[in-house]
Amino acid sequence: MRSIKLFAAAALLLAGGVTAAQQATNLAPTLAPPSLSKPVAAPVASGAPAVGQRALSKDDVDAWLDGYMPYALHTGDIAGAVVVVVKDGQVLTQRGFGYADVAKRSPVDPARTLFRPGSVSKLVTWTAVMQLVEQGKIDLDADINRYLDFKIPPKDGKPATMRQVMQHTAGFEDHAKNIIFYDVKHMQTVGDYVKTALPTRIYTPGTTPSYSNYATTLAGYVVERVSGQPFDDYVDQHIFKPLGMTQSTFRQPLPKALVPQMATGYSVASGKPMPFEIVGPAPAGSLSSPGADMARFMIAHLNQGAGILKPETAKQMHDSPLTLIPPLNRMQLGFFETNINGRQVNAHLGDTEAFHTSLHLFMNDGVGFYVSFNSGGKQGAAHALRGALFQDFADRYLPSIAPPDGRVDAKTAAEHAKLMAGHWQNSRREETNFLAITGLISQTVVTLDDKGGLLIPDLTGLNGQPRKWVEIAPFVWRDTNSHDRLAAKVVDGKVVRWSVDGFSPFMVFDRVPSYKSAAWLLPLLYASLGVLLLTFLHWPAAALVRRSFKAPLPLEGKQRQAYRGVRLAAGLSIAILVGWIVGFTKLMSELTYLTAKSDWWLWTLQIAGLFVFVGTVLLAGWNLYLTFTGKRRWTNKLWAVLLLIASLTVLYVAWICGFLAMTVHY
Prior knowledge:
Elements: H1 2-10, H2 58-76, E1 80-87, E2 90-101, E3 106-107, H3 122-134, H4 162-166, E4 180-181, H5 190-196, H6 213-227, H7 231-243, E5 265-266, E6 273-274, E7 278-279, H8 291-302, H9 311-318, E8 336-337, E9 345-351, E10 356-362, E11 367-373, H10 381-397, H11 410-420, E12 422-426, H12 438-441, E13 444-448, E14 454-455, E15 469-473, E16 476-479, E17 485-491, E18 494-500, E19 509-511, H13 518-549, H14 557-589, H15 599-629, H16 634-656
Antiparallel strand pairs: 1-2, 1-11, 2-3, 4-7, 5-6, 8-9, 9-10, 10-11, 12-13, 12-19, 13-14, 15-16, 16-17, 17-18, 18-19
Helix pairs in contact: 1-14, 3-6, 3-7, 5-6, 13-14, 13-16, 14-15, 15-16
């Protein structure tokens, strides 16, 4: 099962920043009650640093990074990194650490070494969209089909809009196929991609955030259609050129002139180098850029869009929040909030398989922070490191100007924690294909610790242990060892949805419907697999025993046929499930399997599974009938009942988890 859980992570490669178990109530956004809403404080008017604040100077930041980064890279088995800090329209510092190429011992040059910032690329795409909004060529609230040459079907009678696309609430399920690969033969134009990869819309528009690389690519196609230019040409001409980002490109493979500057990607620094990653949904994550160019991009957005957007357009982009679970961080138009210390921070994170990035803009402080790594590191060290760097940077140079947290009394806190208990599913998921299995095996369990406090084993801190949550306002909790908050939405006295600051803008957790709750379904499935396996193994074992004692099988006619048929079917059911596990392992072992390369065996497993799983149920039912109508022992009758239940369970799980979906669209 571990291989299946790992595969769920492949679908999240471009999202960035999410390290919870992989995972639907029809809910509309609500505004924060005054008692729960903590407004972002205005910057301190005085030029003097706040108490405990270090001066944000090049010398201090360089010294801090020199003490922080080398050890972090070595212990995390990360090859290299680039860090850029901008302030008041200028580059404060840009530093390279470690190696762009481990074998060649090539150092990271922040001015020239290209990194792949993954989903941070989306900010360029959203900026392009806002340029066309500014020109009156795109209406954020119009049916997006107005700009397309194919149709996005309505969901619950409602169309998708560009605003929903930018805020990840258009309702699309996730899409993993062709997300990242290495062979150019799998490449498609932006237009071909959005037409062939169209996911099913599973949420009413505007109600549920579900991070979507497809949606961003759809926006990139709208840019092409409205501007009349290929996407790569448009961003070159209208964003990179005005900002002087001369070494940045979305083009894949890289232009020959830039190939020598590309950092090599690694899973871990001590491992083998990885080929250049080709991102299928290119506008969602194919950017290659050095730290110096990303500094120019940050400065433009911190300076009211200077050079690329009018001030009023930049303000609209930076300050049009969608509030779903107050007071947690929210989606803006493309950016999402990572507010900290009472300061407004607009940000984005990004991940490919090799590169891991974060960009944070302290909007009222004129400060930008960017870091990118060319390795994931051991146990995903880069993910934890980028988060720790951001929070430690903020605490050192931009400490809290927010009022202190409150505290809910112990009795009320215990009652609220009980209301959170149960099984929850991530809103970013797939429901119409075989990846729906991740919605069963990766449900997030919320329970209580030995003191009655909130306990979520899947949400761990930097120490690898479950976080300790303290309720600071009704249904709002703070992690005692970080800045992160968790908050829940309550309807009619019941908790119906919750999320955490780290991913609340684009993902939430909703209660799992009872019909697919892992609380009862997984134990039943495991027991059923045991029954099927024992039934199959009993067949040759019993035959060997009879042979040694020269005893015949005490069954004749139809009973003998049912006896043999149901045991063969049980073995075939196990074989099909083993095939799925082996297949998932292959999908995770090499990204090229997340392409048409895997279609043949996906079709084989689904078609064979339909015949085998349905056939097993029919044979088990026939066997049960003959067992009860014949003169069989009570143990035979009991096992026949268990065998029918087991075969029905496997068929049920295969049905709700997409193993019989008859599609290679995932």
